[in-house]
Write a structure and sequence with these properties.
- This protein is mostly beta strands and 119 residues long.
- The protein contains no helices and eleven strands.
- Strands 2, 4, 5, 6, 9, 10 and 11 form a seven-stranded mixed sheet that branches. A four-stranded antiparallel sheet has the order 1-3-8-7, with no helix packed on it.
- Strand 5 and strand 6 form a beta hairpin.
- The chain is globular and about 40 Å long.
Length: 119
C-alpha cells in the first residue's frame, strides 16, 4: 500500500511562490499533481515519470511551475512561481505506474493541501 502526504500549502500574494512536497511510503511510482478549486472539477497540473524523470505540464502552468523528484528521499516537489489568484485550489499528489494527465491513471492519492493566492 502506498501512502502519500502533501505539505507546503498556504496563503501567498499574487506573484509569489510556494513549494509543495509529496512524501511517499511503500513504493516508487510515477507521480502527478492535480488541483481542485471550489465548484470545479479536479484538473491536472503536472506529472513526472519516476524512471528517467520526464515531465508533463498543463498549459496553464507551463513556465511557472516545475515538478521535480528526489529519488533517495522518495519525494516529489512542485515549485510554483508567479502564482495567480486562479491557482487557488486544493492540490493533490497522486502516484501510479505511468506519468499521465489523466486522473484515472493514478492508483493512490494524498489528502491534499490548500493553496490560496490573494490578489
Amino acid at each position: 500500500q502506498v501512502q502519500l502526504v502533501e505539505s507546503g500549502g498556504g496563503l501567498v500574494q499574487a506573484g509569489g511562490s510556494l513549494r509543495l512536497s509529496c512524501a511517499a511510503s511503500g513504493s516508487t511510482l510515477s507521480r502527478g499533481w492535480f488541483r481542485q478549486a471550489p465548484g470545479k472539477e479536479r484538473e491536472f497540473v503536472a506529472a513526472i515519470r519516476w524512471s528517467g524523470g520526464s515531465t508533463l505540464y498543463a498549459d496553464s502552468v507551463k513556465g511557472r511551475f516545475t515538478i521535480s523528484r528526489d529519488n533517495a528521499k522518495n519525494m516529489v516537489y512542485l515549485q510554483m512561481n508567479s502564482l495567480k489568484p486562479e491557482d487557488t485550489a486544493v492540490y493533490y499528489c497522486a502516484a501510479g505506474l505511468i506519468a499521465t494527465s489523466q486522473a484515472r491513471g493514478y492508483n493512490y492519492w494524498g489528502q491534499g493541501t490548500q493553496v490560496t493566492v490573494s490578489s
